[in-house]
Design goal:
By secondary structure, the chain is α+β, with helices and mostly antiparallel strands. The protein has eight helices and eleven strands.
């Protein structure tokens, strides 16, 4: 894993992304179709594999920015410098054409990953095991498997806050191999008097509610996710059968919800 220095939050975000990449790629056909091999890309792949042996890399190709490679790890993408040391996570924009250069590829990757996974549809979900959040008229619906300590889940909450007239079912899915303390946080959030409020507050501030114990569905959620081949968070399920592994921005969420 990575050893270079950065602030704690960014380090956790990067380490989580790299660690989640391996399970996301463990399914046959879950990686995007690689670009035609070339010597430079092959050399980059070999260097990354040597530096980060615990991470499985998908498509690797030059980005639109000189000196940066577009490197896919499951549903996550990083823009990596030539020496393979510095990783930039997020979307790449061409401000001259006002184009999001990452969004289209991310949707393609998500579709390929989902096509390879066991089918889990919205109608089969045990919604009583999820935190229910209603915005506006709540007419549209989606479900999210989310780890309280997952930085991408926190980013997703920001995007979801911009979506109205939706009911969100959040299945607490702590991934203990990456975030060993997340299960206790999930337990406390579920046992709070106002679950939706506790979840919102934690994802906004990182401050966990007072530790509490009650009958919680955390283990059931983990078992359900594992059976469905959900290897990382966030993982979104829409009522029309669409799914998304990884972060979606508000525009993408609106587009997916419009298909329901």
């Amino acid at each position: 894993m990575l050893t270079f220095k950065m602030n704690n939050f960014r380090a956790r975000k990067l380490m989580a992304a790299l660690a989640l990449a391996a399970p996301a790629l463990s399914f046959a056909g879950s990686t995007p179709t690689p670009a035609a091999p070339n010597p430079a890309a092959t050399a980059m792949r070999q260097m990354l594999a040597q530096r980060y042996p615990n991470t499985k890399f998908g498509d690797i190709q030059r980005s639109a920015v000189p000196g940066l490679w577009e490197v896919w790890m499951g549903a996550n993408v990083a823009y990596v410098t030539d020496e393979g040391r510095h990783f930039v996570f997020g979307h790449l924009y061409d401000m001259q054409t006002q184009t999001d250069l990452t969004a289209a590829k991310r949707e393609q990757v998500n579709l390929q990953i989902e096509a390879a996974k066991p089918k889990l549809i919205f109608a089969d979900l045990p919604l009583s095991d999820a935190i229910k959040t209603v915005r506006g008229n709540g007419q549209r619906k989606l479900a999210v498997f989310s780890d309280p300590h997952c930085p991408y889940c926190r980013d997703l909450e920001k995007e979801l806050s911009q979506v109205d007239n939706v009911t969100i079912y959040t299945f607490l899915f702590p991934i203990g191999s990456i975030h060993p303390e997340a299960a206790d946080v999930a337990q406390s959030i579920w046992c709070a008097k106002d679950r939706a409020g506790a979840w919102k507050a934690f994802m906004a501030t990182g401050k966990s509610p007072q530790s509490q114990r009650c009958a919680a569905p955390i283990e059931r959620n983990v078992e359900l996710a594992n059976k469905a081949g959900i290897g990382g968070t966030p993982y979104i399920i829409f009522t029309n059968g669409d799914k998304a592994a990884g972060l979606l921005d508000s525009a993408s969420l609106e587009r997916r919800l419009s298909r329901n």
